[in-house]
Amino acid sequence: MASVASATSAPSSHKAADTVIQLAQTHKPKPDPNGLVFGSVFTDHMLTIEWSLQEGWQKPHIQPFGNLSMHPGCSALHYAIQLFEGMKAYRGPDNKVRLFRPMLNMNRMLKSAHRACLPSFDCAELMECIKKLVDLDQDWVPHSDSASLYIRPTLLGTEPTLGVKKPSSALLFVILSPVGSYFSTGAKPVSLWADSKYIRAWRGGTGDCKMGGNYGSSIYAQYEAVDFGCQQVLWLYGDDHQITEVGTMNLFLYWINEKGEEELATPPLDGIILPGVTRQSILELARQWSGFKVSERYLTMSDLRRALEENRVKEMFGSGTACVVSPVGRILYQGENLHIPCEGSFPPLASRLLKELTDIQYGRTPSDWSCII
Amino acid sequence: MASVASATSAPSSHKAADTVIQLAQTHKPKPDPNGLVFGSVFTDHMLTIEWSLQEGWQKPHIQPFGNLSMHPGCSALHYAIQLFEGMKAYRGPDNKVRLFRPMLNMNRMLKSAHRACLPSFDCAELMECIKKLVDLDQDWVPHSDSASLYIRPTLLGTEPTLGVKKPSSALLFVILSPVGSYFSTGAKPVSLWADSKYIRAWRGGTGDCKMGGNYGSSIYAQYEAVDFGCQQVLWLYGDDHQITEVGTMNLFLYWINEKGEEELATPPLDGIILPGVTRQSILELARQWSGFKVSERYLTMSDLRRALEENRVKEMFGSGTACVVSPVGRILYQGENLHIPCEGSFPPLASRLLKELTDIQYGRTPSDWSCII
C-alpha cells in the first residue's frame, strides 16, 4: 500500500544509483565453457542488499564473492523463508552481452516475495543493480554460442528468532555462474518417471512461486526416478493424473488432439504450475507463427497414452531457462515405457523453437525481448 | 545399506565421545523467565557437526554461539534442503534438568533427514551430543515451573552448487533458547481461522516431516487469519474439509461422537499430519486412563458443526512441544464463529493433560518418559 510506505521513512526499494562497489583484489581463472557443471563455478563479485522492517532497504553492495555470515536462528534456515530466480546473460557474435526478458523474472520474483511474506521492492531498480553486477563481471560471460552466464537472484528471511512469523529482516543477493547445458547428457532426449506417489504442488500451496520449499521436497522423488532408470520426474496431479511439469521445466505436447486439430498444448497456470519465462515465450512465438492451434489446457496421462496408441503425438518437450528446450523421449508410467517420437534426437518443432529463442537470446535476431547490458 | 556404509571409511555417524569443546570467553546475562519472547534469546554455546559424502561425519564441536559462514550457493538457502526439531529441557524442584522423550525427536529427525535426502546418523550419539551441550549451558535452564530451555536441532544441505540434487555436504547444528509460553496471549484459549483457500500439506508431500518448506509456505495464510481476527490457521484438507492440524500444534476434539460415545479424537497419521511427541503422549496417557474412547480418526468441519449444534462438544485443544496443551475457544469457518466450550479458560481434560504432562516434564512425577541430564 503506497500510502503506508510513504508514511514511513523506511525506503520502499533499494536504489541502483546508491550502489557501493568494492572490487575483488584477485580474479579467479575463467573455466573452459565446454566442461561446465551447472552452477558450480561462481564469478568474482556478488550483489547484496539488506532490508529491515525499521530501516527499509539499504544501499546495494557489489562486493567480492564470498561466504555469507548468517545467524543460526534465522528464518531462511529453519522455515525456508526463501525464494530465488534464474535468468541468463548471453554473449552475441557482436560481443555484446544481453539479457532475455529480464523484467519477467523481476516481476515473478516480486510475486514470490509477496507469497513468502518477504519485502517488496522496485523491479526496475533491482534490474539496474543486476546489470551493474553483470557489467562488472562481463568477462565471465562465455565466448560461446551454447554457454551463458547464469544469474541467480535470491531473497532470504534473516529474522534471527524462532517464532514462525513474517521476518523483520531480509537479505537479497545475486550470484553469477557460467554454465553450459543443464542436463549432463547434453541435448539428448530426456526420460521421465510419471508416478502419483509424490506430488510436487497442490492448489492452495506455493507451486506457482519460485520458493525453495518446492525444490527440496522434490529431490527424494528425483532419486526414485533414477532408480527406475529415468532422468527426471514428471509430476502428476489429481485422480485423473494430469500432466503438470518437471520441476526444472514446463512441458509441451505437440500433437493431433482429440478433435483432430494440430495443437501445441501446455498445462494452464492454475496455481500449481511455475509460470516459466521460456514457457511464455514459446506460447507467444507459436501464436505468432499461427500454423497450428496453441493451447493452455489440461492434459492427462490417459490423453497422452491414447494419442500415442493412435499415432497422434508429434513431439513432447520441456522448456526452462536452464535447458531452453529439451525433447522428451520416454515416459515410464504404470510400469510401461511410453515412447515419444523424436526424429533424430531433436524433433522439428523443438528445433525451430530452440533456434528462434537462442537466436534472440544471443542477439543473432533483433528482438525487443533482448536487453543489451 | 549397512554393507555400503561399512565398505567405505566415511563414518556413518558422529560420535559424542569425539566432541571437541571450545568454551565461550564471555557469558551473556540470563533473561527474566517471565518476559521471554519465544526463541529470541540464545545461550552461550552451540553444537555443530559437519558431514560430507567423501569424509562422512566429522567430530562434533561445541563452540561459542555465533553466526554460521555459509556459501551463497548452498542448497539450504536455494532449495530449502533443511529440517529441524523442537524439544525442551526442564528444571525440576529437585534442581535436576530433564528432557522429555528425546529419542522420539531424534527418530523423527532421522525420518525427516531421509525425506530431505540429507545424511542419516546414529540417534543415540546425537542425543549424547545434545546432552553435553545442555549440560554445559545448564545455568540457562530457567528456574521456573512454566519456562524451559528450548532445544533446536537443525540439519542443512550445504552443497555449494546450484543443481537441484542430493547434497554432498551438510551441517547439523543445535542451538538453545530459554522460553516461556509460545503464544503471546499466554494460557488463554486460541482462536482459529478455518478456510480451504490455503492447504498446508497433501498426500505425496512432506507434511509428516519437520522440513522448513512446510512452515515458510504457511506464513501468508497466518496473516490472513490475523486479518480475520484469529490467531492461527486451522488447516483443512480435501473436499469434505477434514480438520488436520494448526501447523505449530496437533488438534484434539473431546466430544460425544456420532454414536453417543465419549471420545477423545485426533486426526490419524496418514502422511499430512506432523507426528507430534505431545500428540503421542496425550494418546498414550488417555488410553491408560481408559475413562473414554481414544481414537485416531478423521474429523470434518461438518462433524464439528453438527456436534456443536447438538451440544456434544466438550473441549477442543491443540498440543505441541512449544505450547504443551492449548485450548481452542473459537473457530471462524465460512463466515461463522463456532464457539467451543471452554469452562473457565482451561477446560477440565486439557487441564488434566497439561498437569500430567508438565508433572512428568518437570520431574514432579517420576516417569520413564523423563530423561535426566
What keyword list fits this structure?
homodimer, 373 residues, alpha+beta, nine-stranded mixed beta sheet, 23% helix, 29% strand, branched-chain-amino-acid transaminase activity (chains A, B), BCAT_family (chains A, B), Aminotransferase-like (chains A, B)
Largest interface: A-B, 67 and 67 residues
SSE string of chain A = HEEEEEHEEEHHEEEHHEEEEHEHEEEHE
Strand content of chain A: 25-35%
Question: Fraction of residues of chain A in helices?
Answer: 10-25%
Mean pLDDT of chain A: 94
Q: Structural class given helices, strands, pairing of chain A?
A: alpha+beta
Q: Can you tell me the overall shape of chain A?
A: globular
Supply the number of helical segments of chain A: 9
Multimeric state: homodimer
Radius of gyration based on Cα positions of chain A: 21 Å
> What is the makeup of the main sheet of chain A?
10 strands, mixed
Descriptive report:
The structure is a homodimer of 373-residue chains. In chain A, a hairpin with a 2-residue loop joins strand 18 and strand 19. Residues 1-8 of chain A have low confidence and may be disordered. Chain A has helices spanning 2-7, 75-78, 102-115, 123-136, 213-216, 219-227, 277-289, 301-309, 348-361, and strands at residues 20-21, 45-52, 56-57, 61-64, 68-70, 82-84, 87-91, 97-100, 148-157, 169-179, 190-195, 232-237, 242-245, 250-256, 262-266, 293-296, 313-320, 324-333, 336-339, 370-372. The first copy, chain A, starts with a helix and ends with a strand. Helices cover 23% and strands 29% of the residues of chain A. Chain A contains nine helices and 20 strands. With 373 residues, chain A is of the alpha+beta class. In chain A, the strands form two sheets. In chain A, strands 1, 2, 3, 4, 6, 7, 8, 9, 10 and 20 form a ten-stranded mixed β-sheet that branches. In chain A, strands 11, 12, 13, 14, 15, 16, 17, 18 and 19 form a nine-stranded mixed β-sheet that branches. At the A-B interface, strand 5, helix 2, strand 9, strand 10 and helix 5 of A face strand 5, helix 2, strand 9, strand 10 and helix 5 of B. Strand 5 of chain A pairs antiparallel with strand 5 of chain B, so a sheet runs across the interface.
